[in-house]
Amino acid sequence: MRHDFQIPHNSGLVRSSLMPVLAITLFCIFIVIAIFNTFVSTRDYEGEIIERDVNKIAHAIMQIEKDCKIYSVESQKNSINFLNVKSFAGSKVGPINLKHPERWQGPYMELNPSMQSKEYLLVRTKKGYFVTPGDGVKLPNGRVIGVDIKFDENSDIEAMMKNDQQLAFKGKALATSLAIKKRGPYFVPVSPLDYAM
After folding, report:
1. DSSP states of 149-171 as a string?
2. 148 Cβ neighbours under 8 A, 6+ residues apart
3. Dist. CA 60–CA 123, nearest whole Å
4. What pTM was computed for the model?
5. Which of 13, 84, 136, 183 meets the CB 3.0–4.6 Å disulfide criterion with 107?
6. Measured distance CA(57)–CA(62) in Å, rounded
């Protein structure tokens, strides 16, 4: 006794077997789109955050310059961790020495911004002062501050801010300059004297 079993073309069995395949395909497409958006959007978002942060920090430091007149900056690269200080004693707050500390109107920001848990930097070069992301920060263009991009007195940060392989990303500057008037002496480490003759 032989039974021939044939599925009619309009039966629900064919339609019901396509539904799981279609659902899995749509789910996989959704996952691919989500992963793509995560990686692409995250880099764009980080670029926007850095651009916003350096501009906010620059505005706060320029307000300090206006209120108190920055007399000198301690070293060539300084962590920006003093903008939330309400009051202090003496003329020095963080790495900056103020000409008129009694005019301090702090805090200039509620929190000191950071990127990837690293503080932003106040960098001094021969061309002026700049706010940059901190050492160890991986920029959206893949470069790492302090590894791929290093700052010293001769760094041309203004040119770096125009280069997408350095301190720019998709036309956005990831650093900004500060119009701080050079007033006081600079901290220049001296080498020990060599008395050998």
Report:
1. B---TT--HHHHTT-TTTTEETT
2. none
3. 15
4. 0.75
5. 84
6. 9
Q: What is the pLDDT of residues 26-70, one digit of tens each?
A: 888 888 888 777 666 678 889 999 999 999 999 999 999 999 999
CB crowding 141-154: b at 16 or more within 10 Å, else e: bebebeeebebeee
- 72: helix, coil or strand? strand
| Residue closest to 69 by CA, chosen among 109, 107, 101 | 101
Q: Determine how many CB atoms are found less than 10 A away from the CB of residue 3.
A: 4
Residue entry with tokens 């009619």: 8
Phi, psi of 143 (to 5 degrees): -80, 150
Amino acid at 62: M
The separation between the first and the last C-alpha atoms of the chain, rounded to the nearest angstrom, is 116
Q: Which residue has the tokens 């040119």?
A: 159
Q: Are 70 and 186 in contact (CB under 8 A)?
A: no
CA 48 to centroid of chain Cα atoms:
9
Quick one: pLDDT at residue 192? 40
Tokens of 34: 């989500």
Q: How far is CA 160 from the centre of its chain?
A: 14
Q: What is the pLDDT, as a whole number, of residue 188?
A: 40
* Sites in the chain below the pLDDT cut of 50: 187-197
